[in-house]
Amino acid sequence: MHSMNKRHLLKTAALSAIALAALAGCGKKEEAAPPAAAPAAAAAPAGDKLKIAFMYVSPIGDGGWTYQHDLGRKAIQERFADKIATSFVESVPESADAERVMRDMAAQGNKLIFATSFGYQEFVQKVAADLPDVKFEHATGYKQAANVATYDTKTFEGAYLAGIVAGGMSKTKTVGVVASVPIPEVVRNINSFVLGAQSVDPAIKAKVVWVNEWFSPPKEAEAATSLINGGVDVLYQNTNSPAVLKTAEERGARAFGKDGDMSAFAPKAHLGSAVIDWTPYYTKVVQDTLGGQWQGGNFWWGVKEGAIDLLKIADDVPQDIKDRVAKARAGLKDGSFAVWTGPVKDNTGKELLTAGQVADDKFLTGINFYVAGVEGKVPGTGGK
């Protein structure tokens, strides 16, 4: 649904090498995965079961984005055990490798394929056009077809809830974000985090460091260190590993987990994790497919649908801040509150939403600016 160049940048050469190794047989990739993941995918016989394959952009052990997708895969495998057989390939670059992996998946009899990164978009479209009897589900994309649906989670709602906590916990009044690639989804999450912090303390300022990759623990750690050295005491991230959280613990700062529950990686620094739950959506898709009622289109689920929430809020967060989070969560769930409600200005002073105005999806999916209080400018734009 997003009209943006999301996840367009390629991953590192290391990830490419991993994915190329997987291409020898994507149905057998489970053998290289952690033991807990392998039996469910590899042991299920084909028979008349619906075969479902998942293609991941980073390792399933990333603790965040891909880890949560794989939890969703495991959940549907358990729920529909006698009716489906699932498999996956991890660390597939957003390149021609993705096309080869998907064609291999289809050749092995998979009739439902989940491609879980935006950079797979053009390859999904190409393969789907050649394989009309296979259903494709593309996470975070916007291009659909007769046999291609797109889906995403409103991660910006989780970012806003985390921002509320950050606003109540920052002593320097300066929060920071380690960002992946400068696309509207990521910029939207950065801004939503800052808006949440400013809802508690309007004096909050924010700094951003871009690493230009989704999964690069060394670069993420380096960016976090730079932000802490610059006066940031609370960190958020839009990257796929727990490196930011770990760095915060090492340096005496606080931080949040992203996409998955990262509390165990750095319990002293952890303020909460904005956790995605793909299980509700994956359950719906499998039920529809088994019932012959699979439908294309675009699906964007948030707190209301149980797809995102801020979990494991730290014990030392004041109760009044926890109450603010609960109130915002309840409003998101019943529709009485929207994160992007005016007045909202960018960091040049331009008013983008007037008082009481609620942003529509077109606005949300085209965000390429920083809100007031965020330093610098979004890479590739002319703003400040």
Can you walk through the features of this model?
By secondary structure, this protein is α/β, with parallel strands linked by helices. It has 2 domains: 13-153 and 278-301, Response regulator (Rossmann fold, 3-Layer(aba) Sandwich), CATH 3.40.50.2300; 155-268 and 307-364, Rossmann fold (3-Layer(aba) Sandwich), CATH 3.40.50. The chain is built from 12 helices and 14 strands. The chain has helices at residues 13-22, 38-43, 65-79, 96-107, 121-130, 155-169, 184-200, 217-229, 243-251, 279-290, 319-334, 361-364, and strands at 50-55, 84-89, 112-115, 135-139, 148-153, 174-179, 205-210, 234-237, 254-259, 270-276, 297-301, 308-311, 344-345, 351-353. The strands form 3 sheets. Strands 2-1-3-4-5-11 form a 6-stranded parallel beta sheet, sandwiched between helices. A 6-stranded mixed beta sheet has the order 7-6-8-9-10-12, sandwiched between helices. A two-stranded antiparallel ribbon has the order 13-14. Helix 7 links the parallel strand 6 and strand 7 (205-210). Helix 4 packs parallel to helix 5. The longest helix is centred in the middle third of the chain and has 17 residues, at 184-200. The model is unreliable at 1-45 (pLDDT under 50).
